[in-house]
Amino acid sequence: MKGSDSFLVVLETPKGERSFTCHRNEFIWNAAAHNGINLPAICHQGRCLTCAGRVLSGSFDQSSANSYFPEDRAAGFILLCTAKPCSDLRLRTNEQHLMRQHRAKLGLPAPYL
Ligand code: FES
Predict the structure, then answer these.
(1) Does ligand 1 come within 6 angstroms of the Cβ of 52?
(2) Does 3.30.1330.10 match the CATH number of domain 6-106?
(3) Per-domain residue ranges for the chain?
C-alpha cells in the first residue's frame, strides 16, 4: 500500500503483468489508462461487462456500477470501469466472456452474449 489514499493494483493481462497505484476515489480502468494500459470497455457505466476482471486478492468498491449483483461479487468478478480499490488488489483482466457466461447461467443480464 502506498499511503492511506492510494493502493497498489496488479493486473494479470493477456500481455503479462502490469502494476500501478490507484487512488481510492479513482476508477481502476481510468488509472490503468493513465498508466498506458489499454483495457477493453464499451459503456463505462458498469453495465455491459466488457471491462470485467476477476479478483485474485484484495477488496474493492463497486457501488458506482449500474448493474452489479451480489452473485457477481461472490464469484469474484469486478467491473473495472466503475470499481475503486479499498486495498491493494491483484486482478485478472479480460474476463468478459466468463462473466457473461456466469450471468447467463444465473438468468441475470448478460449483454452481448
Ligand atoms: S465498460 Fe461496460 S461495464 Fe465496464
Answers:
(1) no
(2) no
(3) 6-106
